[in-house]
Amino acid sequence: MNIKEIDIQTKDILYGRRNLPQFNQPEHAGVCSAGPLLIGALIVCNITRESLSASSHAAGSERTSPSNWQIDEAQEQAVQQWAEAKGVWVADAEEMLTQTYGPMMAQGAEAKVYGQSGDTHVVKARTSIYATLERALEAIALHNWLFPESIMRVFGFTRDADGLFRILLTQPYIECKRLALKSEIDDMVAAMGFHDNGDGNGVNYISGRHHLEDMHPANVFVEPLTDTPICIDCIIKFRR
Description:
Layout: H1 3-14, H2 28-33, H3 36-56, H4 68-86, H5 93-101, E1 104-107, E2 111-114, E3 121-127, H6 133-146, E4 153-159, E5 165-172, E6 178-179, H7 182-190, E7 195-196, E8 205-206, E9 210-213, E10 220-223, E11 228-231, E12 235-238
Antiparallel strand pairs: 1-2, 2-3, 3-5, 4-5, 6-10, 7-8, 8-9, 9-12, 10-11
């Protein structure tokens, strides 16, 4: 893996000279706002997936595509090696985050949240609930594109005590006047081109290009100054 070449490609994407193939032009605003480490990690993931696919289709081998778990495992290993070479792999993130940013404020299925009262930002150690690491990284970029008020910026990578790969990122601290009503969430996502996906859960939406899931009130705060709903977290995927 050529670190310098990945750095060159990252700069080309940041300055609009090239695109990541899975994103269209508007979505690239979310890619770039997440920072160069997200872009570099996505490049590494793309290279890894393409290499696995090429190996599985090599002459003399069975023409079977690699499974998601194989892709995920290979991408995690490749991104860890790249992050270590870049100096952005944090060996003991839990201790570092607590000492630098404050105690853990909250913990959910996807992230551990660190920060202190009065801080303008929180720090998240975000694990993947997606099929592959690549898709977890894509979700951060898509979140930034759809919800720039709660933009996520990647600053490192780690594994927790259980061995789970985690993406380290910052996000603005959003003051919560109250949790959003479902009607407010419906209106917000409708303005973005989403509609209920019809699964009966009422928190999952779909557009022509994306899935938007887990949009329950605990993930959407009404901010007191503007009195408008702001999504702080959700599940976003491309429709594939």
